[in-house]
Design brief:
Layout (H helix, E strand, L loop, with lengths): L1 E5 L8 E4 L9 E11 L1 H7 L13 E2 L4 E8 L11 E4 L2 E2 L6 H4 L12 E3 L3 E2 L6 E5 L3 E4 L10 H17 L9 E5 L3 H12 L3 E6 L6 H8 L3 E4 L8 H5 L2 E6 L4 H6 L4 E9 L13 H10 L3 E4 L5 H17 L8 E6 L3 H4 L8 E5 L2
Parallel strand pairs: 8-9, 12-13, 12-15, 13-14, 15-16, 16-17, 18-19
Antiparallel strand pairs: 1-2, 1-4, 3-5, 3-10, 3-19, 5-6, 6-11, 7-8
This protein binds beta-D-glucopyranose and zinc ion.
């Protein structure tokens, strides 16, 4: 079968090759991939900054956001059958099974030895087929096939927002206004979730107000802010403070400066990764004082567990019902599997690129 692979550590190494079709063992399902999304992590992998091949292999099948159809099931599988639509989670437990890995939350793995399909030590899903244990497959209605590869990034946003609410149980808290930094897929999906929850939401990025990212944010009822026209520190005067801030840029200057914009008792959720590290000079003393004096919280969040994926199925149904066609609009580029390397080259206005496999 064909698969998009890379040589971890080597720049621009993504290519399509022929490899053996995986076998479907006991307790597993063989999944025919329908569509696989590309995200910033895939771009970082293709830039040679990230990614790890499975032990004993010199390449890594990329892709960790995919929707597919069950083709066959192994012995002992009863809860799914051929024809079902599924999405697989990304993280797998560490070999020693730490407390959280044992507790089905490898996204909170304590050791750091977790594996991630398509990223760290395990092949991914950007191929014609993959095989996976039922423990890690999430069923979804067929009507979600065309946006199903957004379930993974949606689950990451869902987890971050859910965590914020859990941490905020430290106090009686009724958030009204949210700010999302970034209007890439993660930022827009976070925007849709917050709007779906009924929060007054502002989405900030570097594109102009008429850009397609701005229009996608505003279609859900959020207000779009072009940070070049309205810098971060000018926002409180204009719009007031924000109860919940989600950083989906990984640009640390934004993430840290936003701590100055969060309301009393508010919270900042840092969900953006920044492997291409840069050093920035920051007004850290001022931020420190504001955090302390105002009981603010900030936290980091990564990956998602089965629970978050399951919640995201309902969320996706709800978003699609409220704003028909909006999720579909995030796909600004679609390529066939043989052209997967093209999907990894981002154009200026791209939101989400996807590889259509079958
Ligand atoms: C994935 C996460 C993963 C992270 C770090 C993200 O793109 O969505 O599941 O944990 O990359 O590897
Ligand atoms: Zn672990």
């Amino acid at each position: 079968m064909r698969a998009a692979v890379c040589t971890p550590g080597r720049r621009d190494s993504v290519r399509v090759i022929d490899i053996d079709r995986p076998r479907c063992r006991e307790g597993e399902a063989l999944v025919r991939v329908h569509m696989a999304g590309v995200d910033g992590t895939d771009e970082d992998i293709n830039a040679g900054l990230y990614g790890e091949a499975p032990e004993g292999c010199d390449f890594l099948v990329i892709g960790h956001e995919a929707v597919g159809i069950v083709e066959a099931v192994g012995a002992g599988v009863r809860c799914t059958r051929p024809g079902d639509a599924v999405v697989a989670t990304v993280r797998r437990p560490c070999p020693g099974r730490c407390l959280n890995c044992r507790n089905h939350q490898p996204d909170f793995c304590i050791t750091g030895d977790y594996l991630e399909r398509g990223i760290k030590g395990l092949h991914g899903y950007m191929a014609e087929y993959y095989s996976e244990s039922m423990d890690y497959l999430i069923g979804l209605p067929h009507e979600l096939l065309d946006t199903g590869c957004l379930l993974e990034p949606l689950s990451v946003a869902e987890k971050g927002i859910f965590e914020a609410f859990r941490i905020q149980q430290r106090v009686l808290w009724e958030p009204r206004r949210a700010l999302v930094l970034g209007a890439g897929p993660l930022g827009l999906l976070a925007t849709f979730i917050l709007r779906d929850m009924g929060l007054e939401t502002y989405t900030l990025a570097t594109r102009e107000r008429g850009s397609i990212k701005a229009r996608a944010a505003e279609a859900s009822g959020a207000r779009y802010i072009d940070v070049n026209a309205e810098p971060l520190d000018s926002l409180p005067k204009k719009y007031g403070q924000f109860d919940l801030i989600v950083d989906a840029t990984g640009f640390s200057t934004f993430a840290f400066e936003s701590m100055g914009l969060v309301n009393r008792n508010g919270i900042v959720c840092m969900a953006g990764l920044s492997p291409g590290k840069k050093e920035h000079s920051m007004p850290t003393d001022r931020i420190n004082m504001e955090m302390v004096l105002n009981n603010k919280a900030a936290f980091g969040t990564v990956s998602a567990s089965r629970r978050d994926f399951e919640k995201s199925v309902d969320r996706m149904l709800s978003i699609r019902k409220k704003w028909p066609g909006l999720m579909e609009k995030l796909f600004t580029k679609k390529e066939s599997l043989v052209n997967a390397p093209r999907a990894l080259r981002r154009d200026e206005e791209d939101i989400k690129a996807a590889v259509v496999v079958s």
